[in-house]
């Protein structure tokens, strides 16, 4: 009886470990499925093209990772992307290409400051504040362009952004990966990065312990706006176009990628590498389904189902917070379970 309960406990712990590392499991499963449907999926050229397509969404997701860890939400990233692309492309004739690009990044930074003012200073709920700013920024895009796309002065100016820079990775992908690595180091190595998790878990308790929670919230929204601005500038320059309809659905997809990567909507939990895993999962799924000519609405259904499944699994691990499911503990417990079951099997064989 004791051996049976030990075996059951071992398998329960193994299941919890599987749930704990669900991001890795679902990423590996997605890559295997994609490779089985797409010939040459793991070839360097195919992987680099997939990453290049996901780079713009990845820049938005980097900013959202910080905002979600802080326990907030930012819906305005797509509108900021559109506004920054219009500034970076539309002002090339007046300012020149590089100054216009800097203005586009500045537009994203200013939009992030506006969101930060609404949430951190005026203390408006982040969902309501960024929804209002999203509508405002999108309206400004339509107003200044008369609802028409704008073109740059040189269609070849943005080609280097999509050309291989490191190995087969384009400059746009390299920018994304470097920023993601810097965010990972900041969240894991810097004291201010670790304080962000405390703010997201409980802002009031963090403030009581001496952490200036409002400033962290302010910085999170400024950073999110900056990332959206960089995404808009790189996307606009690469396509030599700025449009008021750019990024109309990119925020929802980016939030899905961040949540799939293990960041909790309630705040206090998340990682940059998890966001990368979520992005790669969505990119692999999209590539495989597009290769099979699966309609876009079916792709949305699959993405939504995966998102719901991972949220349910997150609830399961959250309810078992006191259980140690590290890889070392899992290996030790499973080895004990196997060793404990061997004498029982020998006893039954002798009888």
UniProtKB/TrEMBL annotation:
Protein name (Swiss-Prot/TrEMBL): ABC transporter permease
GO cellular component terms attached to this protein's record: plasma membrane
Main location: membrane
Annotated GO MF terms: transmembrane transporter activity
Species this chain originates from: Leucobacter chromiisoli
Transmembrane segments: 21-42, 54-71, 101-120, 127-145, 165-187, 215-238, 244-262, 269-288, 294-313
Pfam families per UniProt: BPD_transp_2
Subcellular location: Cell membrane
UniProt entry keywords in alphabetical sequence: Cell membrane, Membrane, Transmembrane, Transmembrane helix
Keyword Electron transport: no
Membrane protein topology class: Multi-pass membrane protein
Keyword Transmembrane assigned: yes
InterPro entries: ABC_transp_permease
């Amino acid at each position: 009886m004791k051996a049976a309960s030990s075996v059951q406990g071992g398998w329960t712990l193994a299941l919890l470990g599987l749930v704990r590392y669900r991001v890795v499991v679902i990423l590996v499963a997605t890559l295997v499925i994609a490779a089985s449907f797409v010939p040459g999926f793991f070839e360097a050229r195919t992987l680099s093209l997939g990453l290049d397509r996901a780079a713009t969404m990845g820049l938005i997701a980097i900013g959202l990772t910080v905002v979600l860890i802080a326990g907030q939400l930012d819906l305005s990233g797509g509108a900021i992307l559109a506004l920054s692309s219009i500034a970076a492309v539309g002002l090339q004739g007046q300012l020149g290409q590089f100054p216009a690009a800097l203005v586009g990044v500045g537009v994203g930074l200013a939009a992030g400051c506006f969101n930060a003012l609404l949430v951190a200073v005026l203390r408006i709920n982040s969902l309501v504040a960024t929804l209002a700013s999203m509508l405002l920024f999108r309206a400004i895009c339509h107003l200044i362009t008369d609802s028409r796309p704008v073109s740059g002065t040189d269609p070849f100016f943005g080609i280097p952004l999509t050309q291989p820079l490191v190995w087969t990775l384009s400059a746009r992908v390299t920018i994304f990966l470097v920023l993601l690595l810097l965010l990972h180091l900041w969240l894991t190595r810097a004291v201010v990065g670790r304080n962000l998790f405390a703010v997201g878990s409980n802002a009031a308790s963090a403030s009581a312990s001496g952490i200036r929670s409002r400033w962290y919230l302010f910085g999170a929204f400024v950073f999110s706006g900056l990332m959206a601005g960089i995404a808009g500038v790189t996307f606009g320059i690469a396509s030599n176009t700025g449009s008021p309809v750019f990024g109309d659905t990119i925020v929802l997809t980016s939030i899905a990628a961040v949540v799939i990567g293990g960041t909790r909507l309630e705040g206090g939990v998340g990682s940059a590498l998890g966001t990368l895993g979520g992005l790669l999962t969505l990119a692999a799924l999209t590539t495989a389904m597009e290769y099979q000519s699966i309609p876009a609405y079916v792709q949305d259904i699959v993405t939504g189902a995966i998102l719901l499944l991972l949220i349910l699994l997150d609830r399961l691990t959250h309810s078992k917070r006191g259980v140690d499911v590290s890889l070392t503990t899992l290996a030790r417990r499973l080895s004990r379970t196997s060793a404990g079951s061997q004498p029982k099997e020998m006893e039954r064989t002798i009888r």
